[in-house]
Amino acid sequence: MILVTGGAGFIGANFVIDWLGAQDEPVVNLDKLTYAGNLETLASLQDDPRHIFVKGDIADGAQVSELLNRYRPRAVVNFAAESHVDRSISSPEDFIQTNIVGTFRLLEAVREYFGGLDAANKAAFRFLHVSTDEVYGSLRATEPAFTEGNAYQPNSPYSASKAASDHLVRAYHHTYGLPVLTTNCSNNYGPRHFPEKLIPLMIVNALAGKPLPVYGDGMQVRDWLYVGDHCSAIRRVLEAGRPGEVYNIGGWNEKPNIEIVNSVCSLLDELQPRPDGKPYREQISYVKDRPGHDRRYAIDASKIQRELGWVPAETFETGIRKTVQWYLANPGWVAHVQSGAYRSWIDSHYAVADAA
Ligand code: NAD
Ligand code: DAU
Questions:
Q1: What are the angstrom distances between the C-alpha of 230 and each of 1, 51, 99, 101?
Q2: Ligand having the closest approach to the CA of 286
Q3: Within a domain: residue 205?
């Protein structure tokens, strides 16, 4: 089996659902269930014996060790993190605690577990750390996309904390021989995305008749990747990546924010027109910029294509259509997130294992 951390969040939950949809290898899913963790997202797996959910913290070394010794996973995939840049600006402390201290404690527990494996299990074991393109900093309009060789220049407390975690992961390979893999991915979008991030926020606000807040001039560029493609890349790196290596993952799909917002509005105009017949883009409202806002990210994903044969399956046009359709088809999920009811859903619907 594999141990996934942060598997009740956006990407982790998509990863667990895709994983168990494709094969029978069980998943132990360790998640602290912060505001970003949503077990309702995993409702389809609630009676599935291949999915073992454990509420807990990657920074709790004793709990992680207990889980490793009980379930003996062949791999750990670390999604658990505080992930929202705006929250890292207003309250950075949780980012330091989970992204840096948490990753350190997780690595320590995994190092001890790895040390006790026999030669064959050591050879097969992998620790895959899921990271971000934001560690490379911001690009000027004419600069080439980030490669794995770019210097780290993180600009927000979020990206600085992820950069620190990447360095720790690298050091555990170099110093202790832990077979680590690190992936640095661009902006994800898709189903089950918490509506504090750009694309889901635009969809739910548009449908609720609320303003669509675009920071600054809306010309910041991100490289958007459909979440299912990120999950397939992680599966491929886990399967065939070389220990100690870093793989950039991206969609070859750079777009300014305002273009993304306009695409969402156009799709909603087509799929669920406003009752008054006016276009959703009338709700766009330019607001104060994010402090220290990175201007442009772009990923050069040629290494993972060349070495592991991975390419994204979705174009932006197919991925964004699927995404908008998912939100339109799941108003209950959206309503529970907006009301906060998703946080009590766990008590009424899910038997949560306790590792203690
Ligand atoms: P998310 O915020 O949606 O989910 C994070 C999950 O981690 C939540 O379920 C939360 O409860 C859990 N968690 C938080 N602190 C924890 C702790 N101390 N112990 C255990 N669980 C904890 O994040 P996401 O968007 O799904 O991102 C997942 C990972 O991918 C993160 O490491 C993030 O840095 C990285 N990443 C995200 C993107 C993106 O566009 N969302 C892009 C590249 C990389
Ligand atoms: O690049 C990968 C990163 O992408 C991940 O590591 C992060 O976890 C993930 O949150 C995301 O970070 P961003 O800051 O790029 O994502 P966000 O959706 O918050 O914002 C995308 C862009 O849209 C960014 O330029 C800020 C802008 N924005 C965002 C919000 C929430 C707006 O203009 N208005 C908004 O309301």
A1: 21, 21, 20, 25
A2: 2
A3: no
Q: Has 294 been annotated as catalytic? A: no
Beta pairing partners, 129:
78, 182
Ligand 2 in contact with 132 (CB < 6 A)? yes
Instruction: With cut-offs at 50, 70 and 90, classify the pLDDT of residue 341.
Output: confident
Euclidean distance between CA atoms 311 and 303, whole angstroms: 11
Please tell me which residue in 134, 294, 300, 314 is annotated as part of the active site. 134
Model confidence at 344: pLDDT above 90? no
pLDDT digits (tens, 9 = 90+) for 252-290: 999 999 999 999 999 999 999 999 999 999 999 999 999
Per residue in 290-338, pLDDT (tens digit) is: 999 999 999 999 999 999 999 999 999 999 999 999 999 999 999 999 9
In a domain, 210, yes or no: no
CA distance 274 to 295: 32
* Predicted pLDDT at 355: 40
Expressed as residue numbers, the domain containing 112 is 2-189+226-253+293-314
Question: Which ligand sits closest to the CA of 131?
Answer: 1
CA distance 120 to 91: 44
Q: How far apart are the CA of 158 and the centre of ligand 2, in A?
A: 11
221 C-beta closer than 6 A to ligand 1 = no
Phi then psi for 143, rounded to 5 degrees?
A: -75, 150
**322 domain residue, yes or no:** no
- CA dist 81 to 99, 231, 232, Å? 5, 16, 20
Q: What is the pLDDT of residue 350?
A: 59
Amino acid at 333: W
Structural domains of the chain, count = 1
The answer to whether residue 273 sits within a structural domain is no
Specify the CATH number for the domain of residue 21: 3.40.50.720
Model confidence at 346, pLDDT cuts 50, 70, 90, reads low
Distance (Å, whole) CA 34 – CA 201: 19
Q: Ligand 1 centre from 79 Cα, in Å?
A: 5
Does residue 199's CB lie within 6 angstroms of at least one atom of ligand 1? no
Catalytic residue among 57, 133, 166, 314: 133
Digit-coded pLDDT (tens) for 2-37 = 999 999 999 999 999 999 999 999 999 999 999 999
